[in-house]
Amino acid sequence: MSISPRRSAVALAALTALVVSGCSDGPDRPRPAPSTAAPSSAAPTPTADDPAARAAALVATLSDEDLVGQVLMPYAYGSSATDVSAGSAAGNRALAGVDTPAEMVAKYRLGGVILVGFSADDPTSGNQATTNVDNPKQVRALTDGLRAAAGKLPAGAAPFLVGTDQEYGVVTRITDGVTQLPSPLAAGAAGNPALTEAAWRAAGAELAAMGINMDFAPVADVLATRSTVIGSRSFGADPATASPQVAGAVRGLQAEGVAAAVKHFPGHGLSAADSHTELPVVGQSRAVLDRTAFPPFRAGIDAGAMAVMSAHLNVKAVDPGTPATFSRKLLTDVLRGQLGFRGVVITDGMNMAPAKKWSPGEAAVRALNAGNDLILMTPNVGQAYDGLRAALRDGSLPRTRLVEAVTRVLTMKFRLAGHAQPALGTLDDAGHRKAAADLAAAAVTVLRGRCGGAVPGPVSVTSSGGRDRTRALLTEALTAAGVKVVPSGGTVVHLVGYGDGAKDLRAGADVTVAMDTPYVLSGAKSPTVLATYSSTRASMTALAAVLAGKARPTGRSPVPVPGLPPTTCGA
């Protein structure tokens, strides 16, 4: 298809807006939204090495079909790009009319693919239709295959996006063979952004080694309610302490060539409802939003976050009745205008209930017109693709909006292009394990009982149902720390985790430990109650060191627990 002068002019205008918008008026001043006006003769000329210049030059060569494909980032069935089971082939045919992920990339000129999977205690499992992650070697082969397919496309000069939700804690897509960080809430309890940055840098290196260059993390939601869908995915209830944690995670990921997508804007922690199944209502005033919800997002933006994920939330103070994903007031006026974000805005999963109010094509058009640049996890790739093309033809999707979105996406891709891919041998290495261990150790919190000192031995470890593996990890760590562990009796240490309540507490336990949000501890009768906020090996090792009297617990609960102080260990 030939390139019209109009398309070239639009691409140049979009480039100029992106380049000029790189300047900031400072973090506390409203910044104007990007302009799509024609560039003035005084506008700076980007160098050939400038990612924005490369993006605009590439956009000017792309057909409508290529432009539309670049804003789509679906999931696919199969653990290989080209060789899938009969069941996976059937899933891909229903989703996109093709058999394999590679064929999906080629047919729809896709900008990226999200890898999906299941993990224990995962509150997002409802919209994970399949899993295509197993182990690092398999993931690397899959991402290599996807990139081989994408490299043949007209937009193939820009790195293909492969993303996943590697938040650590309850939402961790790849669990085997990688360094497991403690949950974000544990990082909030540790209260040391430098430790957070180091741990997330290790995570970024491991994701990059597997061929993943976009992480839908960190969660910037302030835990203002007892939301089980957000919970320990948040860094805490106080925006002043959560904000530097978000910034640290962003810097860590992006230092290793993995784009951070800060989520879920404008703040899923302000509602306890689950946007996977309903449209949560955020009823707080605009003043509360400015004071509570927005600061961690601003911190992530100021740290250089390449992407922000919009949420399916009904924010009554700004655009009542319209999910934020489809709200121009929230995404264009607030996120870009007030908070000054210049990067890629990506939707939350479009296969979630609030987005399925419309057909896949109409939902994609509405999301782009609101200000999103990438459409994530559409429930039907063909319908979304065809709907965007039809809207482009009839003018309901302005060409300037699509070109602007694609230019942003390609700019991000070219920013990622300068990072070399680490070898798989870097996964779970000693340095990465130490970064995770340091963060986990700093998180352990005593909310009742003596600050430090060994518990009297011997010790028996019990737990709520289904936590045999975690009991085994703690038993192993206690034994290594010199504590005798017995099958029953002695000092009883009882573990509770995600989803547990009063019924899961143990009467007569000497020590109760919360391995997720610590709210359940308000009902515990144990003379000593602690929180690790996480059940990883590093967290159980850190807990064992405290119980053995070999480490002083320095964490502070990042959320209020009724009847208990943030810590008994002083300031």
Summarize the structure.
The protein has 571 residues and is of the alpha/beta class.
Overview of this protein structure:
Helix 2 (51-59) crosses helix 14 and helix 16 (468-480) crosses helix 17 (537-547). The chain has three domains: 62-160 and 354-364 and 375-418, no CATH class; 165-348, Glycoside hydrolase, family 3, N-terminal domain (TIM Barrel), CATH 3.20.20.300; 444-548, no CATH class. The chain is an alpha/beta fold. The longest helix has 18 residues, at 399-416. The model is unreliable at 1-46 (pLDDT under 50). It has helices at residues 5-20, 51-59, 64-70, 86-96, 101-108, 136-150, 184-190, 193-209, 239-255, 286-302, 328-338, 360-370, 381-394, 399-416, 430-443, 468-480, 537-547; strands spanning 72-73, 112-114, 161-164, 214-215, 259-265, 281-282, 307-310, 314-315, 344-346, 375-376, 445-448, 459-463, 491-496, 511-514, 528-531. A six-stranded parallel sheet has the order 2-3-4-5-7-9. A five-stranded mixed sheet has the order 11-15-14-13-12, covered by helices on one side. It has a two-stranded parallel ribbon with strand order 1-10. The termini are far apart.
Q: What is the general shape?
A: globular
Mean pLDDT: 89
At CATH level 3, the topology of the largest domain is TIM Barrel
Radius of gyration: 24 Å
CATH-defined superfamily of the largest domain: Glycoside hydrolase, family 3, N-terminal domain
Helical run tally: 17
Whole-number total of structural domains: 3
Placed side by side, the strands forming the largest sheet appear as: 2-3-4-5-7-9
The helix content is 25-40%
Structural class: alpha/beta
Q: What is the CATH top level name of the largest domain? A: Alpha Beta
Give the terminus-to-terminus CA distance.
66 Å
As residue ranges, the low-confidence spans are 1-46
Instruction: State the total count of DSSP E strands.
Output: 15
